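Hi P.,

Sorry for the delay on this. The queue was packed all week, but I finally got your sequence through. Input first:
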Amino acid sequence: MMAVEPRPPPQDPTALTAIAVNALREEVRRDIASVKELLQAENRHLKELHETKFAAQDRALAAALATAEAAGSKSERGLTKQVDQLGELVSTKNDAQSQKTDDLRTRVGNIESRGSGIGQSASVLGIVLTIVIAAGAVLVAFLRH
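Then the structure:
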């Protein structure tokens, strides 16, 4: 006859289910911990990338502002030079006008001293004054532009 091997006593299914559930819980906890570590590492990496990006943007902005400031200074120097040149031009024109006025005064004085008469002197003086006033108006208009 064949020998019959003894069978192990049947286990309680509730206990087996509890063991399996506890094993799955532990596995899920380990998986959650792994995912948490991966997310934290990725978060640190993203933070470093953003900090690097913002630092680069700050440097670029500082360089752009420095360039704009240099361009503004250059433009200001050019404008100052133009204003100085304009001042010299006005001064030159003013000197020329003064010379012409002095020349006209001399001529009027010569005419009066020759005895040409008061009527002619007044006429010349009126012309001289008209020229001086016109030159002043031109000078004022030139300075306004």
